[in-house]
Amino acid sequence: MATITPDAPTAEGSSKTPAQIMQEKADAEEHHHAFVEEVVDEEDIEHPPPSLPTPANGDDAEDGTEETTNGAMSAKAAGKQKATGKPATLDTQSDEAFPALGAGPKPSAPASQKPGWVANAALRTAPNGSKPSSRPASSGVPTPSSTPGFMTPTAGGRNNISLPGRGQDVLEIDSKDLDRSKNIRGILDTVKRRYGVTVTPSEMAGKTRLVAEGPKGKVTEALMVVSKELTTEQTIKVEIPSAVSPQIIGKGGSNIKQLEGQFNVRIQIKRSSETAPSGAEDLRSDVVEITGHAAQVRQVHEKILNRVKELQPKVDLPVRAIPPELYPFIAGRHAAQIQQMEQDNDLRIQVPPFYRRQQMPPARQPNEPLFMPHGDSHIVVSGEQAEAMQARMALEQLAQQLQAELILEELASEQILHPYVVGDRGMDPLEFLERTGCAIILPPPGEDTDDIHIIGPQDRIGEGRALAEELMSKKHNRTVDMRKHFADAPSGHDRHSRALAQYLQQKAIEREFKDAHNAEIVFPTAGNGLSDWTVITDDPQKAMSARNDLAKITQAFPASRLGLVDVDPFYHPHLHERHAQGLRNDFGVHMIVPDNEEDPITLVFEGPVEDSPAALPRNRPSPADVKAFEQALQQAQAQLLGGIPQQPISQKNVGVPRK
Known about the structure:
three-stranded antiparallel sheet, alpha+beta, 17% strand, 20 strands, single chain
């Protein structure tokens, strides 16, 4: 209620002057500070939530809903009371009455409040210290803020807004391809004036990202202009299979012309005139040369490779230009690089193990590299042909680097100890490489040489030599001279020695010596010119003990106890099935059919089945025993040859007409 001054006429007696009325309004507003919480949402007044009935006739006065002065309702409260007393009208824009016909998005609540938040009046006080006015309580149910199926733009979500006629495009350029001498800001300003396109640059992980926004038909063109102005010109060459070149070129060069026009580059394809070598895996390749500004060139390069990948099936591509002496370094030292190449290009790269030559390399000519390709065991790259050819080129470049880094040194050692350096009986070749940085290459089987080759960098070749000598020094070997033992053999000491070795191997002598002496027996192979049998072990005392045991076994099998029968190899597959059991039962003779067609059938006297010892004999036979050996072997040989036709085997080539 306004204060009445003595000099002013009362409201009942005379009217107030306009100045007095304005002064009273100003005084009243000076003591009232409005808050958002004091103003009830008009929509809540007209359409209150069903869970909370509209308060009527001031029923919520006990909660301090409206302020009063001297017990009378203020004009503001009266106006609110009047508003709540209006009859409800049907609002077709209401989300409560018509959820699917909502009236569009409302302004979102401040970020510090959750949807459906309720102001806590108890935490606020009026500026004059009086109890704050209350507001109708919220139902706690968030009101839908947008039409279902549409995204409401948020602050800072400029890229999510798609305006009619406007577009956006993005281009990433390798930072190393940028021409730093150019005025980047000046170029971007020029593009904006000419095309009406705003280009925003940003740096990310070694790349410069350009985001263009503007008229839909201009953004891509503007980016191409920026790329041309900011990047240097370069040329990239890529090798593609000749089989897919026609599809890359297109009818009348249509595909190439389209790429040149779209990216403003020059493309040339140099077709291969070489004749494809035999084998489906070695297809010819053509070279695509792309010239232009760096960003466009890289895009065209990527498009061509992707198209080649779609067109080309998987192949197995051998890499014939790499010497096998380099395989350990590629598979060992550069294993991580090979694995990364496989993962990046979806390839499989098989590097054959190589620690023993299958044949001696060709003689090195003057001015030739230290290592030359040879043999028929190659690295094979499997996958899409385009990626496989790229990988082959990378492997050949790696081989050239290794050629410049590696040297070769020869190390003389006993030939019998070669297998105990690296391989199945020695150290794993890749472990040797890891420990010394060097590779060991053994001579071919049957090669009469004591030299092994150590390959490695100049500064580590000594480590490889030292480890190889250490491995060989740990082995102690003793030999049994079979040339002396079979000096009177009718078929020669070499054939009898091999025949007895086959028999003892069938009787598991190697396992017996491994268990008894922890020793290995090395028998000579055909054609290596060796006749001695060797026992090898880590203990010198056990080596001597094993050698003496082996000598006792050999003396129990003189030449008279073995019979060698030459039979045409045509009959070999049938002899064991037809005669082996009969010879054993009738004469006590064991028959061996060799795997090698050049070797004869071996007959060994063991004695009657019931008298055959469980272990190999170790006693020298008596003259009576020798006579029994010879008689049994003669009878067994006669029975064996009697079941074989004596007419010679002949062969004839018969021509068959083609279908």
